[in-house]
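Lecture notes, part 5. Sequence design as translation. It can be helpful to think of inverse folding as translation between two languages: the language of shapes and the language of residues. The source text, in structure tokens, appears below.
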């Protein structure tokens, strides 16, 4: 890294990321930001033990939010600054990892050109804006930081086994950022399988301790998944606590079958990151669906091709495995939706497969194509970040793609209510109830809107409807009861 060319690459990567995310500093608090940061009593109390109790499995990330709050309260500029800093650091680490990987493979030595292109595309790719600009998704950013650090130390350990110690240390730390970190050892093992021609005998003999560590990390991931998903009961999966929280929790096998289509959407976003949105409508389908069958055939064909061609195109096989392993924890069994921030750790795999297979050679054509793509992506990311400056703007944008989506309509209405534009909010809140009449929150929001318009009787009717549905969330039940008590008090004072 003392090479002047490498230093120039790092400076260019910094400038590209700054150009793409200069607009992100206008971003406001959104969605889970309120629960995790703005309204988090542990941050306000300043108690580290409270931060630990809030989220022990993601303690390190919430520790950075705690530090942010101590130094700048709720000034969003500095939260965005830290997110962007981590994102740039990840771009640099990704660049360094690719240089070390090429050196470890040992065929052509280090090539700065493909490493720089991968890092640049990673930094400015528009699909990454959700992970970087949505403040609470620092979870994804820090998970990838420790994942890259783990892989880098393992590559360094090929020359000096001392580096297994920091590799184990950062793996342990990463598990306190996000559960996805547990796949890092599997990515490392897959890389060894691809690049070392399956010399497994010597590998198992020389790396027993690391393999034990990798097995432990994978076991932790499985336990975390089981803790979230619940336990086997009567031969079927009980998605506890998700089943207690959401009345529309999907059937496990329908959800799993649909993920093959969802992965196709993620892959499309890697190559065509336009038409980005917060909510993607992917209808649930079973394994008998022709679209699911086609998606399964596509992924199997791609996997078989990568396996057969791994010696000729090892980076393609490694990159595809990197993508699949990184995405698997969030997009297989646990019903948790399709969100762009899940691509943050997975996108580098596609970039490795694409750039090192088709654009590795440094020539005028490859350089022109990829420079044009990088500049286009930089501009697209710069534009996309403006949408995060206002909840109304980002949800109205989503409404163009999903006019019949319950959450989209509900959030457009809620954003308008936040600006006291109750008359404008009313049709969206009513549409949300029409789409999902059994949702307590939808009736509660409509009641708040009607109360804001002065229609206290209408508000009481909606609150009574909300109470009759008996929400499974204690917090929602409390809000409904408090609002109903207040409305009835106001009606009584008015003599109605």
């Amino acid at each position: 890294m003392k090479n002047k060319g490498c230093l120039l690459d790092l400076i260019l990567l910094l400038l590209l990321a700054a150009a793409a995310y200069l607009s992100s500093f206008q971003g406001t608090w959104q969605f889970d930001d309120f629960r995790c940061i703005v309204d988090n009593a542990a941050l306000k109390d300043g108690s580290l033990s409270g931060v630990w109790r809030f989220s022990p499995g993601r303690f390190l990330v919430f520790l950075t939010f705690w530090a942010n709050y101590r130094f700048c309260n709720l000034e969003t500029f500095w939260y965005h600054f830290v997110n962007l800093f981590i994102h740039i650091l990840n771009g640099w680490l990704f660049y360094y990892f690719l240089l070390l990987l090429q050196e470890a493979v040992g065929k052509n030595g280090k090539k700065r050109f493909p490493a720089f292109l991968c890092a640049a595309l990673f930094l400015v790719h528009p699909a990454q804006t959700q992970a970087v600009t949505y403040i609470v998704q620092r979870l994804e950013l820090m998970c990838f930081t420790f994942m890259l650090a783990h892989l880098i130390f393992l590559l360094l350990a090929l020359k000096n086994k001392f580096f297994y110690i920091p590799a184990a240390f950062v793996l342990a730390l990463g598990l306190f950022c996000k559960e996805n970190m547990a796949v890092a050892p599997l990515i490392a093992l897959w890389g060894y399988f691809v690049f070392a021609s399956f010399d497994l005998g010597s590998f198992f003999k020389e790396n027993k301790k690391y393999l034990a560590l990798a097995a432990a990390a994978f076991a932790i991931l499985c336990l975390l998944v089981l803790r979230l998903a619940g336990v086997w009961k009567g031969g079927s999966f009980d998605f506890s606590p998700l089943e207690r929280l959401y009345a529309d929790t999907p059937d496990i096998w329908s959800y799993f079958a649909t993920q093959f289509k969802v992965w196709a959407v993620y892959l499309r976003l890697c190559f065509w990151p336009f038409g980005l949105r917060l909510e993607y409508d992917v209808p649930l389908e079973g394994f008998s669906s022709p679209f699911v069958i086609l998606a399964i055939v596509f992924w199997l064909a791609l996997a078989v091709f990568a396996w057969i061609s791994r010696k000729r195109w090892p980076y393609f096989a490694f990159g595809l495995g990197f993508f699949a392993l990184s995405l698997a924890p969030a997009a297989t069994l646990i019903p948790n939706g399709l969100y762009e921030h899940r691509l943050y750790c997975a996108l580098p795999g596609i970039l490795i497969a694409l750039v090192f297979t088709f654009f590795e050679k440094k020539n005028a054509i490859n350089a022109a194509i990829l420079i044009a793509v990088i500049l286009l992506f930089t501009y697209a990311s710069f534009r996309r970040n403006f949408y995060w400056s206002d909840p109304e703007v980002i949800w109205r944008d989503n409404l163009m793609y999903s006019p019949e989506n319950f959450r989209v309509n509900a959030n457009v209405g809620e954003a308008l209510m936040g600006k006291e534009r109750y008359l404008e909010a009313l049709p969206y809140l009513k549409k949300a109830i029409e789409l999902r009449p059994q949702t307590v929150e939808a009736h509660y929001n409509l009641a708040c809107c009607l109360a804001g318009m002065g229609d206290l009787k209408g508000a009481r009717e909606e609150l009574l409807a909300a109470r009759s549905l008996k929400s499974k969330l204690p917090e929602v039940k409390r809000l409904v009861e408090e609002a109903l008590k207040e409305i009835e008090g106001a009606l009584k004072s008015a003599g109605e």
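The translated text above is only one of many valid answers, since several sequences can fold into similar shapes. The beta strands are 232-233, 236-237.
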